[in-house]
Amino acid sequence: MIHVLNKRDMQALDRYMIEKCRIPSALLMENAAFGITTAVSGRFGTDTRIVAVCGAGNNGGDGFAAARQLEAKGYHVTVCLVGRTAELKGDAAMNAAFFGPRIIEITDENTAKEQLSGLSGCVLIDAVFGVGLSREVTGLYAAVLTLINQSGAYVVACDIASGIDADTGAVRGAAVKADETVTFQCAKPGHLLFPGRAYTGALTVKEIGAAHGFSQGYMGWANTITLQKRRKDTHKGSFGHLACVTGSRGMTGAGVMCVRAALKAGAGLVTAGVPESVQGLFAQSSPESLTFALDDFSGGLSESCVGGLDRLMAGKTALAAGPGLSLGGGAAAAVIHLVTHYDIRKVFDADALTIIARDLNVLERKAGDIVLTPHPKEFSRLCGIPLDMILQDPLEYARGFALKYGVTLLLKGATTIVTDGARTVFVTAGSPGMARGGSGDVLTGVIGGLMCGGREGGKSAFEAAVTGAYICGKAGEAAAAQLGELSMTAMDTLSHIAEVTKAMTREEDI
Known about the structure:
Blueprint: E1 2-3, H1 7-19, H2 25-43, E2 50-54, H3 58-72, E3 77-82, H4 90-96, E4 104-106, H5 109-116, E5 123-127, H6 139-150, E6 154-158, E7 180-184, H7 189-192, H8 196-200, E8 202-206, E9 219-221, E10 241-245, H9 252-264, E11 269-275, H10 279-285, E12 290-294, E13 296-297, E14 300-301, H11 306-313, E15 318-321, H12 329-340, E16 345-348, H13 351-358, E17 369-372, H14 376-383, H15 387-392, H16 394-405, E18 408-411, E19 416-419, E20 424-427, H17 439-451, H18 461-483, H19 490-495, H20 497-504
Parallel strand pairs: 2-3, 2-5, 3-4, 5-6, 6-7, 7-8, 9-20, 10-11, 10-15, 11-12, 15-16, 16-17, 17-18
Antiparallel strand pairs: 1-9, 13-14, 18-19, 19-20
């Protein structure tokens, strides 16, 4: 897990290292520059021309320092400043002084075109704007960023691609599309959230100073997760018993995928609570699971199913509900009862989310630890906020909702956000091939399987949501690698879960 900080907290961390840890700001800048220098020298030989395009702030200072270090290593370096050297201050001015009159001042578009055209085969260091950008990029600056994208150079962004909002990933008018980004101390939300993630390229995080004693909170990037190897003295009861309330006539596939995914994720036992008329189909499609017939009305749950739910839930350690459930009156009664009863870990998806969205007050009466797994459109229905507003700042809306209702929210997307309001993790694993029906059903089952626990305890709702999103993302990547993004299905993702969890498992005996 890599720490993630927003721009406000990153600025506070910089001050802390300078004021409390007594690290000179010039040394922090030098260390940041070494991160850029290492990235460039590790990939390109000294016969590669380097063009550093710097702004007037500290990000520009990092660029000047990196240019100096690369020149010292024998690279041919050209240094450009968007602005005038006389306007530079502090550490940026100090590092720029090394180049003196060799700095090319870009003060008009003609100069920008002259310096930033035809750079194929060169490396361009983008050090125009850093994480502190808080305004729209217009005029000469917008022209420079556009020319960088058209230059043909391999672009290494310093801290963040210029023009990307570090908190939301939004493009502030214009932005550099980097091949790679070297950021300092912590990743930023804008590196991980789209569209910023598409402008970041390969992301490397470089430590630039000790920050002992600084509370970084709990926001992270799940770039890797491991699983614990199972003890030898275990049995099926050691890993809990999951109830899946799912399925209806015409939508049994969703329930079957959910059940199978839960078993692949390690649940000791899984019982599918389904309408009586489809019980046989479930038993045939997933022979490793148990089935429990619930009162049926026209192929879905009847409103009299609640008594059966109490019998189904006896002895269960976790619940997964929603896939293929339908939206009838019986399904609605079941979901409300499942939310408000049974003090265990639970995950709700699909039709269950639509039912919960009809009356969010049901969450005020919830029992147990709950995970909700909406995609953005479902989340819009849940919170009553227009979809376009959510997409502008998904992190803020997700955290606010989770905190208000005391749930873990997993907001699905190309970058998945998992948050309980206090803790937030970004999961970037996945493939565009997963954008098809059934992927959410698999995820629901995996989360349920991870948190059903038993003697071994299982994962908390939050941990299961993070780990489940990571496992499904990696399984989706494996399916795409084997089959291609166009033709893979949710069942292909499911079939690759085993190889992913095997690779994630620590091999030491316990």
